[in-house]
Amino acid sequence: MTVKPTVVGVGAAMTGGIRPAGHIPHSSRRPSVVSDEREREQRRRSIVILSLLATCAFLFVLCLCLLLALVTVGRRFSSHNLTDVSSDLTADSAVLLLDDNRLDENRSTIFLPNSVFNSREHTPVAGSMNRVFKMGEQIVRTLGFRLPRHVKPVHYELRLQTDLTSETFSGTVGIELNVSEVTNYIVLHSKRLTITDTELRALLLTNDARAPADGQEIGIRRAYEVPEHEYWVIETQDDIAAGDYRLSLQFNGSLADRIIGFYSSQYRDKVTNKTRKIATSKFEPTFARQAFPCFDEPHLKAEYTVHLVHPIGDGYEALSNMNVSEIAENTPSPGLATTTFERSVSMSTYLVVFIVSDFMYRERLVKPKYGDPFPLRVYATPLQQNNTLYALDTAAVIIEHYVDYFGIPYPLPKLDMAAIPDFVSGAMETWGLVTYRETSILYNSETSSTANKQRVAGVIAHELAHMWFGNLVTMKWWNELWLNEGFASYIEYKGIEKAEPDWGIKEQFIIDDLHGVLTLDATLGSHPIVVSVENPNQITEIFDTITYSKGASVIRMLEDFVTPPIFQQGVTQYLEKHKFASGVSEDLMTELDELVTEVSVSDVMDTFTKQKGFPVVTVEVNDAQYILRQKRFLADQEAASQETEVSPFGYRWYIPLTYISSDNGNVRRMWFPPKDDIVLLEIKDAGGPNGWVKFNYQQVGYYRVNYPDSMWDQFAKALTANVNTFTIGDRTGLLNDAFALADASLLNYSVALELTRYLVKEQEYVPWSAIASKLKSIRNLLYNYISYDHITQYTRQLVSEVVTSVGWDPQENEHMKNLLRTTVLDVACTVGHPECLSEAGERFKRWLNNNDVIHPDIRSIVYTYGIQSGVSVADWEKVLKRYEEESDANEKAKLMAALTAYPDQRVMRRLLDLSWDVDVVRTQDQLNCIQNIAANRYGEQVAWEHVRENWERLVNRFTIGERNLGRMIPSITGRFTTQARLMELQDFFARYPEAGAGAAARAQALENIQNNISWLKRNEQNVATWLSEVLTSGGGGTESTRR
């Protein structure tokens, strides 16, 4: 306790109390009076001292009593003979040994030790109390988000029974465990389950090592849930020795009101006009614990024997990872069947899958180069059977190619794929039974566009790549998720190219994966590829663009600098060495390091995977040399001072440089080590004194390049003279780099805009896709400025020639041209191209009133812009009715685009309210509906208001751990450009501080708005000046077309 010091006043400063003796005149004092005053003062002091001594004595006695009580309680807690224990947490006991030497270096939380034991003998040491606290709640208090390491699952015997009518399930699970050390507790995962019985038995060895016998039952002191860690904790009455055990649990749960874990989905049968229910599952990353108690961490692989009890008849059957072993009809009761599946290979919990449905399938036999033939099936609702044929044929080609590429047989006896009516993700790579959202696997030439077809091929190729990367070899912990998703995101391009060699799919990588992640990774809100994660929300959050697209981009760069044959060999060696087990990044890099002598693959890749961001290489020129420098690229260079995350490499990179020159089109290579300040290249060896050099061939490297203005001018003139001076990839890369550098004020905006002049002659999809996106982005930023009309007019002029060239009528077998058509018609209609808007409006009215057929490739264009062409609310109602009646998922998506594009605020508010009705909008589509409305200028404000007013309701429906809910925020606020809007978002976050799996998305949303504000301050005037000069010299009006 702190005692406030006494302040003594002097003279007039003292305003109260007894005056000191010094204030009484000395001549007025009498000796007797002074003596009496001294005696009274001494008596007062004596009384105070005696009072203090008495108080101290009382407190001393009280402390002795409390100490005696604590000793008594401690003795009772330390007794080894305690058997009758209350179920109250504070009255129970457990053992906690704190041993700092047992901390695992890969763990971010404390290792939970076992009870007192001899470290050599692993036998209990009775009476030993060294560093031991026998208090049961200590286990709970010390639990982190990683399971203890002394218990590992070996095999799950799992039985689940579904009741589709009541949307519930019940089950039992027997888990064979290996306990590596003496312990008195077991911890596993459980969430949203009611566990009704827990039993633990020792296992006895038999002649069949895979079927041990039950031995002695182990006494359980108590079993309880720890909700904050999603744990089920079992404490035993006595210590149990290292060995094998079976943990058996009975449980039940709900299938309703969720779209993760084990859940119900439904669809409308058009023939009977009845709703049909199914049960399905989605467990990645941490949702298996919502279906059955389990050790829900990726490295804790085990084998599974699954028994599913389901309705018999009416077309219902059960599916799981493995092939069916037995179907027992009318078991356990009439009207039910029990389907038993073969024992699985060793796999992670998130790869387990169950489906109870009335689906039908199409089938073909896959005959791979390595391994035995196996059946491939595609399951879907009965009316969707014909829409599975493309997926079936494409998957067969891709899976055979992967077997050949990896040189490793497909490990399971069958491969099923299923189209699920309600599915939160695009697809899920569950081993042996891959599950998909319907739009990701079903293709109908009458309703599906070229882009829809490419998506189906891409998602299938991605998921089947996981059969090796992710399933056969799994990351040890979620911080290495890129080993799953980054590799699948890159390898999928190899699969698509094999199935569809005429699509030019490799060129599309830069617009589908690279450019988007370069934009995100240029912000402070980014994160390294390999990032520390611990709790379920953090784990869910890293399923993001960095993990997928940056992972894929650096792997693409890796393959390029080690060469494709070495890459393929190293990958195969990695998979062979770690199959049916887990790995980390270093394992893969070690395999490649053994094959590459020129450079350390680990040293190069660590600079791209273990720090966020990427470099910009700046090219300077003197009389004889190009001088190259590197620094971190940020969208807002002034934000660098706000960086709080320290990089282990000081934000320097080991850059694999590639280049071509005006006098030599061959690709040449050089390295830029992080320790070097500059790298030199002789001009005579690359372009000569009057030529140019272009770095980062095909934009394969994960970096940007800036050049002197004079060289940018050479690029622009070369493209204007001959579009094919550069490859499609290099043209696209130049456009992307120029505008990113201009956005960051590292290049004058006029230089970037000058580069676009050549586009009047551009006829390829990939460059147009890149620039169309950028021009629309600039136009959105300029919405409140006069230059909005100027950028609109300039874009309209740019696109006119290519619009005339591609026309409105798609052709078969012109995949890239069909994609180009959709892209340029979209941007033309966006900027008010009169002929485009007129054509879209006319075709829309004929479709709406006369049921004219619109080709699927232009259907989204016609729907989206036709509904803006003066149609009535009654016409909008007609589109809504068609949406509600439509069963084809791709067509529903196109109709949703039309509904959300209607230019009326009140109608958009009504649609937002309708999005809560699952009979109108499926739960899986609600967030997309909100985001589409926000992309409509008439819906932006009402969508933002709706989200703020209904945030708690959204969280209740999707949970705060749903990453797509968090990512909706930067999507709907992406066009905000004012300080007032920024403050609105800050206020919203302050009102709802719990971010869940959306923490990074919140930071990105705030940073994005701030970057928009900064962009306008830095660039608006420069853009306006250039546009004004160009349009003045070229003529043309400036009518306003604000959309």
From TrEMBL:
GO terms for biological process: peptide catabolic process; proteolysis. The record marks 548 as: Transition state stabilizer. Its EC number is 3.4.11.7. It catalyses: Release of N-terminal glutamate (and to a lesser extent aspartate) from a peptide. This is glutamyl aminopeptidase. The chain crosses the membrane at residues 47-71. Homodimer; disulfide-linked. Keywords: Aminopeptidase, Calcium, Cell membrane, Disulfide bond, Glycoprotein, GPI-anchor, Hydrolase, Lipoprotein, Membrane, Metal-binding, Metalloprotease, Protease, Signal-anchor, Transmembrane, Transmembrane helix, Zinc. Its main location: membrane. Residues 18-38 are annotated as: Disordered. The keyword Glycoprotein applies. It is an enzyme of class 3 (hydrolase). InterPro entries: Aminopeptidase_N-like_N (IPR045357), Aminopeptidase_N-like_N_sf (IPR042097), ERAP1-like_C_dom (IPR024571), M1_APN-typ (IPR034016), Peptidase_M1 (IPR001930), Peptidase_M1_aminopeptidases (IPR050344), Peptidase_M1_dom (IPR014782), Peptidase_M4/M1_CTD_sf (IPR027268).
